[in-house]
Design goal:
Enolase-like, domain 1, TIM Barrel, 2 domains, eight-stranded mixed β-barrel, three-stranded antiparallel β-sheet, 14 helices, binds 2-phosphoglyceric acid, binds magnesium ion
Length: 443
């Protein structure tokens, strides 16, 4: 991969600093300098609804900053990682990540910390691209061997769950616009829907503010009211629900489900596994839902397999907390018949190479993939480039307000201008789903 010339891509310095994320929490930024002058920088994001098997962020604990400080992670970057990677070729991402993984030596990245590792891995990625003099998406495409493509966005309209004080049980009520002709048109249609939703909620006295990822913070009395309002917003934006625009949900069921029992607090209902599956099935029948994430809890393999057996032919079923960007868990889920898609969050895996390994297994097992942000984000736009360069076809970033979100959509628009025509394929990859086929009249 080193077309940068001998030694110019060698890492000459690497250091971490403390910066702040969209929730005002401290996080780790790593900056890498190469001998030839190239610089790369990346910031670790942070989740609120985390899977128990994802890479663990190293945080200081104690009273200050609610225990969230990252000084130990920063010391680890400066004292352990910097000497380890010094002199290595920044374009040799696989070797750099292997050194990080080896040095950490733990399954959940607890020694160096997932936050220190992901910021380092992505900072090196940026430095490698800069040393080669190519855009980040191109560098990623060259590493992954995938043809670059613009992703279909998944955009939140209402927040819920851990991102809105558990105000509604379901975490993300989102739209996707597979019927748009360009990425730019997706943005425009989504903006209309977001505005319409805000107006409808304000009029009905259901608007409390803005949630963690920029979606409206709702005052709904049931999860179903959220779905009805979303349909009303799509219609008010001049669209026919299920035509160009479809609904996508992140149930994030691990937040309210355990041992096959599910507590819908908003509606004061306790459901067992079968009742939960039936409830979700009723929503799938009543609303134009094309994608659903973590419908059952991360400890409910039986429920995930049963749900996928019943609905996998007609809806995208994404494992997030369930798969935590882990190649082994993807293989296990495929063996069990659970899920048909995986969310790719680099900080769940710890390094880009871990994430690419997961993606490779997902592709081998016929799973779709979606690159995703976390609820705690920053101005870092690496994931826009990853979604393009890994050629996954879908990107989830949060809502359509707040700059840590908009920076990533806007970066995709810039990349769109640099990509050859045809890099955005209308409807892809949802065109291959039941909704896409139904729309084309073939199902
Ligand atoms: C999710 C993400 C993003 P968090 O569950 O998919 O919406 O949330 O980063 O809090 O895990
Ligand atoms: Mg999720």
């Amino acid at each position: 991969m080193n077309d940068a010339g001998p030694d110019t891509a060698a890492i000459s310095s690497l250091a971490a600093r403390r910066v702040w994320d969209s929730r005002g929490n401290p996080t780790v930024e790593v900056e890498v300098h190469c001998a030839g002058g190239a610089i790369g920088r990346a910031i670790a994001p942070a989740g609120a609804s985390r899977g128990t098997r994802e890479a663990v962020d190293l945080r200081d604990g104690g009273a200050a900053l609610g225990g969230t400080d990252v000084r130990r992670a920063i010391v680890g970057v400066n004292d352990i990682i910097a000497p380890l990677l010094g002199g290595m070729d920044a374009t040799a991402q696989g070797a750099v990540d292997a050194a990080l993984i080896d040095c950490d030596g733990t399954e959940l990245k607890t020694r160096l910390g997932g936050n220190a590792m992901v910021a380092t891995s992505l900072a090196v990625l940026h430095a490698g691209a800069a040393a080669r003099g190519v855009p980040l998406w191109r560098h990623v495409a060259d590493l992954s061997g995938a043809g670059p493509s613009l992703p279909l966005p998944e955009i939140q309209i209402f927040g819920g769950g851990a991102h809105a004080g558990q105000r509604v049980d379901v975490q993300d009520f989102m739209v996707m616009v597979p019927g748009a002709d360009s990425f730019d048109e997706v943005m425009e249609i989504t903006s209309e829907i977001y505005r319409a939703a805000g107006k409808i909620m304000a009029r009905r006295g259901k608007l409390a503010g803005v949630a963690d990822e920029g979606g409206w913070w709702p005052m709904f009395d049931s999860n179903e009211e959220a779905l009805e309002t979303l349909v009303a917003a799509i219609e008010a934006a001049g669209e026919t629900p299920g035509d160009r625009v479809v609904i996508s949900l992140d149930i994030a069921a691990s937040e309210f489900g355990r041992n096959g029992r599910y507590r819908l607090a908003l509606e004061d209902r306790d459901l067992d596994r079968d009742q939960m599956i039936s409830q979700l099935g009723r929503w799938l029948d009543a609303y134009p839902i094309a994608s659903i994430e973590d419908p059952l809890a991360e400890d409910d393999a039986q429920g995930m397999a049963a749900f996928t057996a019943e609905f996998g032919h007609r809806v995208q079923i994404i494992g997030d907390d369930y798969l935590v960007t882990n190649a082994t868990l993807v293989d296990r889920a495929a063996d069990d018949g659970a899920c048909n898609a995986v969310l790719i969050k680099v900080n769940q895996a710890g390094t880009l190479t871990d994430s690419m390994r997961c993606l490779e297994r997902a592709r081998a097992r016929g799973f779709r993939a979606i690159v995703s942000a976390r609820s705690g984000e920053t101005e870092d736009v690496s994931i826009s480039h990853l979604a393009v360069g890994l050629g996954v076809g879908q990107l989830k970033v949060g809502s359509f307000t707040r700059s840590e979100r908009m920076a990533k959509w806007n970066e995709c628009l810039r990349i769109a201008d640099a990509l050859p025509r045809g890099a955005y394929v209308r409807g892809a990859p949802l065109a291959k789903t039941w909704w896409g086929q139904r729309k084309e009249g073939t199902s």
